[in-house]
Amino acid sequence: MSQRNTDVSVQLDMPVDCDGEAVAPFTPGQAKACTVREVLDRVGGKWSIGVLVAASHGPVRFTELERQIEGISRRMLTLTLRNLERDGLLVRRVHPTVPPKVEYTATPIALELYEYLVGLTNWAERHRGAISAARIAYDREHGPV
Amino acid sequence: MSQRNTDVSVQLDMPVDCDGEAVAPFTPGQAKACTVREVLDRVGGKWSIGVLVAASHGPVRFTELERQIEGISRRMLTLTLRNLERDGLLVRRVHPTVPPKVEYTATPIALELYEYLVGLTNWAERHRGAISAARIAYDREHGPV
DNA sequence: CTGTATCCGTACCGATACTG
DNA sequence: CAGTATCGGTACGGATACAG
């Protein structure tokens, strides 16, 4: 991952420049792992996927998102939107009307990402039961405490 | 996501039972988002992917992992291994020899997951430049502070 | 309607020391 | 070799109040 203690993870609260290119030798496998981490560090926030999915079906307004994504706070919605916009995954368009109207749209890059997320979704749906069972079995054998 | 404040995220430090089935009505899109979150909550930890990748190439020993995954601490390696084993993504085999020898192997489910991670890896590699550029552009327009 | 600002809990993770 | 135990920092995210 990051070989120095310069952490390359997302800073959701405060933006930070993040260009930790791999300099040290990686095993091919761990290079892959490192790249996946890059994605997750950008899109792995608690709400990013939800916002992305909602914005992938056409332009969405702020309040629409707030209603569609159950449980999100106004603060986190704003932060998530800013981060996704910053990474070029969302386009923010302001209509200078009163009351103000702001629309968010997923970029082609984000739409492409959405495709791959479907793969993960299907994986989770297929194995949800098995994983749940594995947990129960594990907790019974070892102490649930 | 989780409609109550019962959070379904991973507890990495302390195991916790996590079966928050979706009961409330979801929009189809947000249902997808919710399922992806399930995956990330299991596998989105800082080191999970790295461990998974390393274990997908055959049985690996504890110390091997410690060396391959640059920067991981002994504590985090143990915790990550325990979580993955609990979810049925890793099998732990103990050889009762002296000195002790423990081997971790990815299960078929984990191998399948690995396939899908490749999709994300390729996505990141394709768009790494564009995202980086988008960040720079964004930070120049809005304040980098 | 679309945000900002502030306070604060807690999960995640690192460092370090100890053990069968 | 393969862990466990404990302490502490800090980023993430929730609640709430305020604003253009």
From TrEMBL, chains A, B:
Residue span(s) of domain HTH hxlR-type: 34-132
PANTHER family referenced in this protein's UniProt entry, alphabetically: TRANSCRIPTIONAL REGULATOR, MARR FAMILY, TRANSCRIPTIONAL REGULATORY PROTEIN
Origin: domain of life: Bacteria
Classification via PROSITE patterns: HTH_HXLR
A GO molecular-function annotation: DNA binding
Species: Micromonospora avicenniae
Keywords: DNA-binding, Transcription, Transcription regulation
Record's keyword annotation contains DNA-binding: yes
Key word tRNA-binding present: no
Name recorded for this polypeptide: Transcriptional regulator, HxlR family
